[in-house]
Write a structure and sequence with these properties.
heterodimer; A: about 375 residues; Rossmann fold; B: mainly alpha; MetI-like fold; 2 domains
């Protein structure tokens, strides 16, 4: 039976020889029951530590973890009904695939006949029936990766934890397994927590994304919201490929009211939000996908440096007049050569505005609403 | 062109190098084979022929013409060989089991738990391995004398374990570092207790490691001379190595019988080498001793 997972100001420190390393710092959030939640972030941001605390393999230094009503902070991993797929796959080399999948059931004392039925069923779903009697060493990497979730499948866990299970796979296998994992989620009555550093996995598979930054929660939201309404510069830069362009600007008073003035553009700003910020410098974020050669109310000149083809689209890596790196994505960039100067435009509603501290001041819709209400 | 300059194969052609390498390999292998097999052959040849056949014509005759078990018969009738052999088996078996068990426990602990002084403990273990047995022999003699344990299987087992354990511990410590901890964690998450995990996951995975450790402990104990000589004082407690060395002093025992007992000493190591060689190589590879 799926259970929600609650974190209450969870902190994890590692002490080694006098130095304290804080892996997770004051994490408070609730993962809804039965959801597919992805923990994402750069290396060393504490996502695996968080996952291991859910499994009980690490004990928090401070704070509580609860599964539903039951507090599990100090429970041993054996007592929590979790299943975990490890990054290193962790198949027992001395057991056949069948025994590997059924080991958890064997520990729980499920009779052999019953065990075998459930293993056969799981194997069919994962399409590994032919591999059941083989030893792990006889399987290819991809086949092993398919076996690993099998044990989770037969065990009917409350919580299923996956620690970067696809990090070593090629793109084709990854996309196949992505579907497999989602199917696993649909068939199991379990709360799934998935750790990855690959934001494509995070964005495509999950109901909720937890983005961590050096042990702290950066944002906890559905993927769409993370993309469209980042709460900080960090979130906007981490989510989305290529990364969001950051243009520096200052809040200035003009004849028409307040404006965000940068190198070559002047974006009207709503006075209620920026009245107190006149003279401050801000950062405007604009996704490369929203820079277009045709249209856009505000213009930028980009000098192209490198052009990459991504299927039907082209990514131009370049820089603005003041040297700020700027990327732009469009299918119209096919004939751009390095060194070319492109005039690209953007609209106010696609912007994010970040303050000096990296927090979001407002999203584009607030700017655009204001711009519309003002006479041009 | 100075030495070491130029592309590979620019002075001596690649093809010639390859041939040279193969030829060198064959020559070295042949030399090693000769050095190793000739003494063994001499031992076998002397052991299975009667002394009259070996020394006929005033020369050592190493071409086996007739096979006889006369030397073995003399050994069994006139000496305590069976008793020595039995003693050796008892202390070797106990010491092998003890040393391996110690190594598995220590190796698991050193890799799976954090405690103060861990690195120091590991270094001490490796340092202890560098002692020659005779350095330990006298202190151990004093200890066993004080405890009144001299001339017992127990004392010799302990003494032999003291020689082999530093190396077996070090070997298992290295081996356990290669056993991914995720295997154990995955078992814990599935509900298996630590003890159960050790029996069903850790030990089976570590099998090549502890078989290597056991083989090493066996070799140390079986071939030991020093400790047995120091610890055992009565003749019926001697191990086969000490017992055989006494034969050389006896008038009634000649070369034939000595070589026969040598052949007997070789049998257990030979059997182990034959049946466990795969494990031996696997274990030592991990320990970095190829």
């Amino acid at each position: 039976m799926a259970r929600p997972i609650h974190f209450d100001t969870v902190r994890k420190e590692y002490r080694t020889a006098g130095t304290t390393h804080v892996a997770v710092d004051g994490l408070s959030l609730s993962i809804p029951e039965g959801s597919f939640t992805t923990l994402v972030g750069p290396s060393g941001c504490g996502k695996t530590t968080t996952l291991r605390m859910i499994a009980g393999l690490e004990t928090p230094t401070d704070g509580q973890i609860a599964f539903g009503e039951e507090e599990v902070t100090d429970q041993s991993p054996q007592d929590r009904n979790c299943a975990m797929v490890f990054q290193s796959i962790a198949l027992y080399p001395h057991m056949s695939v069948r025994d590997n999948i059924g080991y958890g059931l064997k520990v729980q004392g499920v009779p052999k006949a019953d065990r075998d039925d459930r293993i056969d069923e799981a194997a069919e779903t994962l399409q590994i029936t032919e591999q059941l009697e083989k030893m792990p060493a006889e399987l290819s990497g991809g086949q092993q990766q398919r076996v690993a979730p099998g044990s989770a499948f037969v065990q009917d866990p409350d919580v299923l934890l996956l620690d970067e299970p696809m990090s070593d796979l090629d793109a084709k296998l990854k996309s196949e397994l992505r579907v497999e994992v989602q199917r696993l989620h649909q068939e199991l009555d379990a709360t799934v927590v998935y750790v990855t550093h690959d934001q494509t996995e995070a964005m495509t598979m999950s109901d909720q994304v937890i983005l961590l930054n050096e042990g702290r929660l950066a944002q906890f939201a559905p993927p769409g919201e993370l993309f469209d309404a980042p709460v900080s510069k960090y979130v906007a830069e981490f989510i989305g490929t290529p990364s969001t362009n950051m243009l520096s600007a200052t809040v200035e008073r003009t004849d028409e009211g307040l404006a965000l003035v940068g190198d070559g553009f002047e974006v009207t700003a709503p006075s209620d939000r920026f009245r107190d910020r006149v003279g401050e410098s801000v950062v405007l974020g604009i996704r490369p996908q929203y820079l277009s050669t045709d249209g856009g109310r505000y213009g930028l000149v980009v000098t192209a440096e490198v052009v990459e083809q991504l299927g039907t689209e082209f990514v131009v890596h370049g820089h603005g007049p003041d040297g700020t790196p700027i990327d732009a994505v469009s299918s119209a960039f096919g004939d751009v050569d390095p060194g070319d100067r492109l005039a690209v435009g953007f609209d106010a509603e696609d912007l994010f505005v970040f303050g000096d501290d990296g927090r979001t001041i407002c999203h584009g819709d607030a700017l655009a609403a204001d711009a519309r209400s003002q006479p041009r | 062109m100075a030495l070491g300059e130029g592309a590979a194969g620019s002075i001596v052609p690649q093809r010639f190098q390859a041939r040279l390498k193969r030829a060198a390999l064959v020559v070295v292998a042949a030399l090693v084979a000769v050095f190793v097999t000739v003494p063994v052959y001499v031992m076998v040849a002397v052991a299975v022929q009667s002394p009259t056949a070996v020394f006929s014509g005033g020369d050592v005759n190493l071409i086996v013409e007739s096979v006889t078990f006369r030397n073995f018969a003399v050994l069994f009738q006139e000496t305590n060989t069976v008793r020595y052999f039995f003693n050796s088996l008892v202390v070797t078996a106990s010491s092998t089991v003890l040393s391996t068990a110690l190594a598995v426990g220590a190796g698991y602990g050193l890799t799976r738990f954090e405690f103060t002084g861990k690195t120091l403990a590991a270094r001490v273990v490796l340092f202890a391995y560098m002692f020659s047995p005779i350095v330990l022999a006298i202190p151990l003699y004093v200890i066993f004398y004080t405890l009144g344990l001299l001339d017992s299987y127990f004392a010799l087992t302990m003494a032999l374990t003291a020689i082999s354990a530093p190396f077996t511990i070090w070997l298992m410590w290295q081996y356990f570092q290669t056993v991914p901890i995720a295997l154990e964690e995955s078992a814990w998450v599935r509900g298996a207790s630590r003890t159960r995990t050790i029996w069903e996951v850790v030990l089976p995975v570590a099998r090549p490691g502890y078989i290597s450790a056991a083989i090493f402990a066996f070799a140390v104990a079986w071939n030991d001379f020093t400790m047995s000589r120091v610890v055992m004082s009565s003749e019926e407690m001697y191990t086969i190595t000490v017992g055989a060395s006494l034969f050389l002093d006896r008038v009634s025992i000649g070369w034939g019988e000595t070589m026969a007992v040598s052949l007997l000493i070789c049998i257990p190591p030979f059997l182990i080498a034959v049946f466990l060689q795969n494990y031996l190589l696997q274990g030592f590879n991990v320990g970095g001793l190829e």
